[in-house]
Amino acid sequence: MSRSLLMSEHASNAVEPARPMLSVNNIEVIYDHVILVLKGVSLTVPQGGIVAILGANGAGKTTTLKAISNLLHAERGEVTKGSIEFDGERVDSLSPNELVRRGCIQVMEGRHCFGHLSIEENLLTGAFTRRDGNRAIRDDLDMIYGYFPRLRQRRSSMAGYTSGGEQQMCAIGRAMMSRPKMILLDEPSMGLAPQVVDEIFEIVKDLNDKQGVSFLVAEQNTNMALKYATYGYIMETGRIVMDGDAASLRDNEDVKEFYLGIGGEGRKSFREVKSYKRRKRWLA
Length: 284
Ligand SMILES: Nc1ncnc2c1ncn2[C@@H]1O[C@H](COP(=O)(O)OP(=O)(O)OP(=O)(O)O)[C@@H](O)[C@H]1O
Ligand SMILES: [Mg+2]
What we know:
The chain is about 40% helix and about 25% strand. By secondary structure, the protein is α/β, with parallel strands linked by helices. It has a domain at about 20-115 and about 180-250: Rossmann fold (3-Layer(aba) Sandwich). The strands form two sheets. Strands 6-7-8-3-9-10 form a six-stranded mixed sheet, sandwiched between helices. Strands 2-1-4-5 form a four-stranded antiparallel sheet, with helices on one face. The chain is globular. Residues about 1-10, about 265-270 and about 275-280 have low confidence and may be disordered.
């Protein structure tokens, strides 16, 4: 058999690339009818991926996550262009609850727990969209305590009196109680000590590995996010200015200089650099 025939046979047997878990296509978001915040954002999360959205204050990370989970209306925000597909279906017009039922849930910035409820009660509130009975819910609670031993220890403490790290774990654990296919995680590192952030990201990686949950993580902490994500998108003023495999972003000179603080010309904060200069370099 000729080599070319062999190759074409091989090509016809090729496996189709897996359908993405999430695909955001060129979305635009406007707040208050006039403030244009996202200017054509596109990104993809493969099934079982951990993808990071990186960028400074006000870049548009939270807005992107809220656009996906349909939480913008509460803030007078609206997706005015583009489309969003989750698990192969358009989800732009679903309610946040319906989206949770389909397996996509957001953990908000600032780890919102109910301070006056115990950790366990908080976790149980995460099961509100489920209809598979108490037994299954109890089993999942146990599974979650397996991933978060600290939550098991603190199960009867009032959430308001637990540490910031424990509250972040509680917020992620509560999201897990909805049996998600995907979690949108907004700034899990905010205000936490580096070793606690590491502990949380290790658990995220574990949930990803063992439970097959995909993650889209918004982070200002580029260093930490690129340690755990497989792919990253960098946002500035409502646009994606760069994307790539986590390893290639970690090695990129601009990323090192502006986001990791280890540039060749000596340490420098990217905030000190005028944004037009940065944009020019990104786009060059
Ligand atoms: N409800 C709102 N109404 C008007 N403008 C808003 C609203 N929410 C956010 N913005 C603006 O949208 C832009 C993007 O904000 P967003 O919160 O998405 O950024 P971010 O990347 O999450 O920032 P941070 O790292 O500080 O959380 C900012 O300029 C912000 O001022
Ligand atoms: Mg934010």
